[in-house]
Amino acid sequence: MKNSNAVCNKEITVQNKWYHNLKYLLVGILFGIVFVKAEIISWFRIQEMFRLQSFHMYGVIGSAVLTGMVSVWLIKKFKIKTLDGEPITIASKKFNKGQIYGGLIFGFGWAITGACPGPLFAQIGTGAFAVIITLLSAIFGTWIYGYLRDKLPH
């Protein structure tokens, strides 16, 4: 029994090595390349969307929502587990009016800056270094929210 526990502890230690996270870095880089090639990070594409001039971004967002819906359904139906064998649980969410306010603030920021948090790093990676101001603003806004969270409507 003692050897069995030692082996289990050794496996846990091996899984926590830093280089096991390189797969996430690789997926992130590939995801960023897809964002660039699909013009999802384009300020002009984002402005077209908010001006209702093009379906491009609505198609991307709609396909992402559909993919997410199907994925969640499949995870629940087939009780899919993580790569480590842990069950995936999706907590129920309760609607509150703070989500409306947050969504409006998020949308206004997205329309003004032409960047949402997902593609910020891809935009910076393409050389749009002015987006660093947007990234710092997003970090600051997140900090402000954390500071004021208890006083905000939830």
UniProtKB/TrEMBL annotation:
The keyword Transmembrane helix applies. The chain crosses the membrane at residues 24-44, 56-75, 100-122, 128-148. Keywords: Membrane, Transmembrane, Transmembrane helix. It holds the Pfam family Sulf_transp. This is DUF6691 family protein. It comes from the Bacteria. InterPro entries: Sulf_transp_TsuA/YedE.
